[in-house]
Design goal:
The protein has 425 residues and is mainly alpha-helical. It has helices at 8-18, 23-38, 45-55, 58-69, 76-97, 111-129, 131-134, 143-164, 193-224, 254-282, 287-307, 316-339, 349-379, 386-415, and strands at residues 2-6, 102-104, 107-109, 170-173, 182-185, 231-235. The chain is built from 14 helices and six strands. It catalyses: riboflavin(in) = riboflavin(out).
Length: 425
Amino acid sequence: MEEECFNPLIALLVVLFGSTTWLGVNAFWVEVSIHTQTLPEGWNLGSIITIIIQISAIPSLFYIFLQYKGRITISAAPIIITALLIVSTVTLFIGIFNDVTVYIAGAQRSIVIYIGIFFVGVVSVLSDVLFMPYMRNLPKMYFNSFFVGMGMSALVPSIFSIIQDAHSYECVHIPNTFPPQFEAEYVNLKFGVTTYYTLVFIWYLIGLFAFLTIHWFQNFIYNAWPKSFTWSVKDVAVAPAVLDEKTEKTWNGITDVVLLCMIAIVNGSLNGLMPSIASFVTLPYSPNTYSWSLTICAIFQPVGSFVSFFLKARNVKVMIATCTVTVVAVALCIILAFQSPNPWLVNSSIGSAFAIVATTSVYGFGCYTRTVVFEHVRETSPNEKSKHQRLMYAGLAAQAGTLIVTSFVFPIINVFHLLKSVPSC
């Protein structure tokens, strides 16, 4: 049993750093309903952005290839700093120039959004194979804090959106339509799109400052921070199958295959499936159900990761159990999505509660499972050298899961139109 000194300031800085991982992508999805009111693509914008985000995974694959070949000689820190500087600047440009369009292929295209989201996606995907492996440089007791931060990357934009009052709209009559048709119009926004993305930009800078502090001033914080504000953490180390610094072995056999599969399943559900079908699952019950679901799911993402700090899953069977609960909740959401616009118990409070419980269970159990599985991948490394590679390939498995799920979901929704949406009005 090991006893280490836990510093809450370091943990907070790790959370802030982790919150930059998928911040830009989540910020766009939270604001997409506002964009559809002003940009020429309308509701087709979401499906276009989904493809762009998947294309943005290509640089990460190139990075992994170079890493595998040993061609990357600089440390991760300069790359992370550069990535955060780029994505923060791009986010600010999206906020200022989001309404700039260019005539391409017979229609006006939101070129700034396209290019901006590509770079935002590059950094977000890269965070899974670069930011996460960097955490091997910190004591393992801060590893969970990084995943709490990943959950915060969804919660922070949601808080900005709630302050903006982006979930409140009025149904406005569309002129010259018979029978009368209505569309949602966001008329009471507290602030506009530019201010929203400026807040996201500022949060990126906060995350960058947190990383710089962790990387260069970690020892200073340990020495300067009052000992009375730290506490000892007793942790039972998980013994790897092989513990030999001389061995070149990276993986521990079938157990690691199961872990990577769980990572792919959970991440595919969280980042690929649920954002695509959430409106089909909850909006048929009521706009309030949809709004509450988004808010609670955003809260459950960091909470699910935070719980893993106290309820550690040492046994792979426990991880399989929580992953199974996640998959069952996902299956229920898929059933409700295919039943749209008339799902079970529609027009009832019980139905609304059921839909909210189903969606929030995916994020709560999913984020918990993702955290404990990644932690297990790190702790069961056969040797210290293999930790970086294991975390990097675990991040690759996460992106593979998202890509596979998206490749199925996109044609189902946008090509074959098997899911029927409910008008906002």
